Amino acid sequence: MKKYIELSQEVQQAKDEGKPIVALESTIISHGMPYPENVKMASEVEQIVRDNGAVPATIAIMDGKIKVGLTADELELFGSSSDVAKVSRRDLPQIVAEKKLGATTVATTMICADLAGIPIFVTGGIGGVHRGAETTMDISADLEELAKTDVAVICAGAKSILDLGLTLEYLETKGVPVIGYGTEYLPAFFTRKSEFPLNSYTDSVDVIAETIKTKWDLNLKGGAVIANPIPEQYAMDEDYINGVIDQAVKEAEEYDITGKDSTPFLLSKIKEATKGKSLEANIALVKHNAKVGTQIAVSYNQKTAKVLN
Questions:
Q1: Is 159 assigned a catalytic role?
Q2: What global pTM score does this model have?
């Protein structure tokens, strides 16, 4: 196992010193936004994690290794490359074996973070049940990973291109807690709330940290979703963005675009229709998630350190 995982010097030192670490995905870099904005965003998100008291661990597949933490040069190479594979659980062994460049999705980042002993992971939004899944069975592997891998995911809810109601139902069936931070409703990525109320919510990062610690202390396997709404000033009008999304979904159906190709296609169409405002919102919510996620990681680290001492 160890021969496949390579920790950066910064991440290894943090582990040796017992410092909190925050895992970050790489699909948002390679498939979520264009170069050089992607590298700039990734570097700024890493700095937010550092500024709030933890060490960032951006995860990617490079040179036959699962890289946990990237150097500035590696981040630049990764962000500027055009032949990066989007890697989910099913793809991970082959991409590592063939020594290809691979970007980790939410599911794969959870797997790799768990292998590296990092329980807190920050992303933009999770995947979920796609619209029309009752006939296509198009359900993101992120949900299954949340059901079995012990990593908490801080996000702005599920992407609003999905069926949010069915996504919540799926997570409930799998026993995955969805905790609203400062909200009683599931955030819908570009907007602060959806029509779907959450069973659990709090305004305290310490309560969230204690809750996920208790979950794993009780040996209740699987992750948790911490739903953190996009900041008010960057949130998009609900009716407007939903209309844009509906049109993008219609185009995807017309072109028969499904599976892992659907999300990049839809986000690209939404960016085009909103004249880039959706990209601005995406960057803002990721940065906000990084701040809140790091606060949770610091609190969780303090609580687990007390137990060890």
A1: yes
A2: 0.93
